[in-house]
């Protein structure tokens, strides 16, 4: 399998970061039917659509291509806590292609790759294997990266990701999955290539062993090993799919899913992607993610003639981390105070659909402490919070199936002038979803207020247009301005007012053939006069992605 380079531009691979979709539960049946591409009205911003199922008319109705999570099939299975599965999953081990065993030979041969999705290894079919693969080519152009503070201008980056996995099922209760990655990066005026997130020698990207079964009326399981973790709000963390190398974790999670309630318990250490040698990835014991996530499917009801379903999620996420992401502004302008941090996130999320309105409301209190690296400085408490909300009105019966809405966010800020009180800046050290607010990562979800309209259109079944136009302010003018990857901008006392600027964003994605997607992302960075006066640079980002997936 190769790539075709179109004249005048490099092609990039597509992102399967899809947001949460309509909360209607899927019900299995027994007769063939097409599987439609899923709408994503609950997406907080404008993620690229997940690739639709290839040759869907040939597949079996009711075969969810993931385990049947009952009510938690909502949002293309995102409600289950294992990410979106729309034919292909964000986490490829979340797929389940065993339904192909019940399909006819003709059905299975309608797509050549079906023969790789279910490979029988014994006569009964209780032992079987599924193979997956992705080839992704991405080109990114930024004329003023990081608001002109990256030390580069007119940066052109070319990223190639080769990612292949094998999923072995040993009966109903044991499963092993291994995924291997090789990432190549180049370009002109590049930056950020030495972090382990872009260039990666051949290595184990994910490797899990799962034991599962039924007990106490629930589907239960334990998953151990290296894995992508997606059971958290997109405003707090993501799989880091903007780069070649996704963010993975080494550890364990245990889950139990009942008809209307589920719980997920987890304890992870971050995978260390350095040094960049063959099969050299280890575990970073200085960075830990742990906690519990619960979700309850509230009673269904009808509104404006449509079935409605809401979910109430209560969660605790604990962060332990150090390095640049844990640093906080010092009293002297432009200086930072190094150290480590523990962040205790207690949150409530209410999401789902009320008739044609899709809602996603999240509130988080963040406690914990900051420990300075210098022993003569005092440990400080953390008192921060975040409020996030999206509401979208979708008309599937109109031409283009439009969705119109608004997204609003508040991530608390503190005071850099106070060096002995509680730290009031909300922290998101594990890469919030880039599409959530700012694709360029010029800003991140700290000391930030954002509000703006969102819209989506299905121009054709395989052609999707998404728009987002957020306006940003600093939540506290006594605090710094924060960028992605732990960046703290040196401007602070010289900034006038809280208004930062606007970053309108457009995405056009075309699934032009089975297994293929071609996506274009364009973002403008328009800054306030106060930002321009202190030396911040306006600019634009263009990203083009070509992806092949099976």
TrEMBL record:
InterPro entries in the cross-refs: Alginate_export_dom
Domain called Alginate export: residue spans: 128-516
Domain of life: Bacteria
Official protein name in the record: Alginate export family protein
